[in-house]
């Protein structure tokens, strides 16, 4: 059974930082591409970033220079380091493979 479990969300002030984690199981993690997406209240799902199995990364324009995705194949975990957070980053953040998505973790950026 494929499982993707996100953690690390919470409430942070504008300009602050958070690191999200996504622990994976049930598939060959090291050969899989992993992505992060987010859904803000009342809006659709928005792709944020992807890290390919070869380690290459791509980012949505609004998070470039602020977010960093990384992976630890030994731990089957993908991370999303988020810096300089803005209120518009408030959303539920999901990690996903091409076929599966986790349950999400809430990130709220507010003073």
3D structure, described in words:
The protein has 111 residues and is an all-beta fold. Helix content is 0%, strand content 50%. The protein has no helices and ten strands. A six-stranded mixed sheet has the order 2-10-9-4-5-6, with no helix packed on it. Strands 1-3-8-7 form a four-stranded antiparallel sheet, with no helix packed on it. A hairpin with a 5-residue loop joins strand 5 and strand 6. The radius of gyration is 13 Å and the shape is globular. The model has no long low-confidence stretch (mean pLDDT 97).
How would you summarize the topology of this molecule?
Layout: E1 3-7, E2 10-12, E3 18-25, E4 34-39, E5 45-51, E6 57-59, E7 67-72, E8 77-82, E9 91-96, E10 105-109
Shape annotation: globular
Span between termini: 40 Å
Q: Could you tell me the radius of gyration in angstroms?
A: 13 Å
Q: Compute the number of helices.
A: 0
Key attributes of the depicted protein:
111 residues; mainly beta; 6-stranded mixed sheet; 4-stranded antiparallel sheet
Quick description:
The chain has 111 residues and is mainly β. The chain has strands at 3-7, 10-12, 18-25, 34-39, 45-51, 57-59, 67-72, 77-82, 91-96, 105-109.
